[in-house]
Design brief:
Length: 457
């Protein structure tokens, strides 16, 4: 197929048979008012200011005026500028040629190479799969991270939040999963990231091994709010394309908090009243619409969602973290206290939970994980007494077991970024750790190492 034919085919797919027009009447802050065109909210339009074309999106209406927000700076836009819209639906061209590529929120390449001209049009905004026809999560999903494979076992199609403050290793953990998981495709949305960190994430955390089966969608923090929001929806739309092809997709969105801040910025700009901590109602309406699009469908493909939440002031109960926890199927808490001890990944096992783990692991696995959790909790409760020397060995059998196990468990939970641990290896190593304790439960977990193979996808 010639390049000219491919270009023509792509143009025809994205073209429309009509064009609607309007004019700019006012610009207030980030909002542009116009007399038209009469298209639905979410439609993309173009503002013609001299020889410059500004892409914008319809975000609302005020009486007989259309409210627009641009995808770039508004310099040069003046009253009377022509607004055109040639389609009322928002679709993007997606293909397997996106693998290994980095694109922006508008779908344009950021790595200096042209994108493929063929593919399928997929909707940027669509409803989540039918709740009744979704298949149940029944297969273990290998993340390649010991702590999550055992204590927080995830299923293919599960959605989980990674809650953490700044600088505690969220990006490093996402890079580990992208490199070591059993996914066919990774779709990574970097929403509101620092420009400096984008290349660091791609080259250091993701690496060539992770990048070759990944699509990275980037909208840095300096870009307009509408661009940051679009990046999250574009990443989700790309993940849905690969899921519908029967692929096991991992969708990573970093971060939900910056997405919520962008939506708050849009809501306040168009006059929406603020509510909890200044977040507008549209923020809490948008989150379930986006997050519920991941997961399983009635087909064979799945989207396993990993959504980071940048908690303000390490407050795990702040509004976005609280709302996200209520939507997702579990959460992983990263602890600053563990980071200060040089413990990576800094997963706080006792504060984290996987809501589908009990449905996808065997009784032996569940018993092993529960016993290990109990030992961690017991040691945490007695840690102060042990540290100051107020506890003497023999006073409490359970505390003695916890003291004997804490160092092997801590070593088990630590993992280098370049180290991979499969589900089978993770359970086998945990069984060996627990077997070293003088516990009646320890013998029951030795068979756990072989069990995941039959349940894994």
């Amino acid at each position: 197929m010639s390049v000219l034919f491919q270009k023509a085919e792509a143009t025809v797919k994205l073209a429309s048979l009509f064009e609607l027009r309007g004019t700019v009447t006012d610009v207030t802050g980030l909002v542009i008012e116009g007399t038209g065109p009469s298209v639905p909210v979410g439609s993309q339009v173009v503002i013609h200011a001299g020889n410059v074309r500004h892409a914008a999106q319809v975000v609302g209406f005020r009486r007989d005026k259309v409210l627009l927000m641009p995808f770039a700076e508004i310099q040069g836009i003046a009253p009377g500028a022509v607004i055109t819209a040639d389609k009322t639906s928002t679709e993007v061209l997606v293909s397997e040629g996106l693998l290994g590529r980095t694109i922006d929120a508008l779908g344009e390449p950021m790595d200096g190479r042209p994108l493929p001209l063929t593919g399928e049009l997929v909707p940027l905004y669509r409803n989540p799969p039918n709740a009744v026809t979704r298949t149940r999560i029944k297969d273990v999903f290998d993340l390649g991270v010991r702590a999550m494979n055992t204590f927080l076992t995830m299923g293919a199609g599960q959605r989980i939040g990674i809650m953490a403050g700044s600088g505690v290793g969220k990006s490093t953990l996402l890079g580990m999963i992208a490199k070591h998981s059993m996914s066919d495709v990774n779709v990574i949305g970097l929403v509101g990231e620092r420009g400096r960190e984008v290349r660091e994430f791609i080259e250091r955390d993701l690496g060539p091994e992770g990048m070759k089966r990944s699509v990275v969608v980037v909208a840095t923090g300096n870009e307009p709010a509408l661009v940051r929001i679009r990046a999250a929806f574009l990443a989700t739309a790309i993940a849905e394309y690969f899921r519908d092809k029967g692929k096991r997709v991992v969708l990573m969105l970093d971060s939900v908090t910056r997405l919520a801040m962008a939506q708050r910025e849009v809501g306040l700009a168009i006059g929406e009243p603020p509510s909890t901590r200044g977040y507008t109602p549209s923020v809490f309406a948008m989150l379930p619409k986006l997050l519920e699009r991941a997961g399983t469908t009635e087909g064979v493909g799945s989207i396993t969602g990993l959504y980071t939440v940048l908690v303000e002031g390490d407050d795990m109960n702040e509004p976005i973290a609280d709302a996200t926890r209520g939507i997702l199927d579990g959460h992983v808490v990263l602890s600053r206290k563990l980071v200060s001890k040089g413990h990576y990944p800094a997963i706080d096992i006792l504060s984290s939970v996987s809501r589908v783990m009990s449905d996808i692991v065997t009784d032996e696995m569940r018993s092993a994980a529960n016993f290990a959790r109990e030992m961690l909790a017991t040691y945490q409760d007695a840690e102060d007494l042990i540290t100051i020397g107020a506890y003497k060995a023999g006073q409490n059998l359970k505390v003695d077991k916890a003291v004997a196990l804490i160092d092997p468990l801590t070593k088990f939970l630590r993992q280098r970024a370049d180290e991979k641990s499969s589900v089978e290896e993770s359970w086998r190593d945990l069984a060996q750790v627990l077997a070293s304790a003088p516990s009646p439960q320890a013998g029951a977990v030795t068979s756990a190492a072989k069990a995941p193979q039959a349940r894994a996808a």
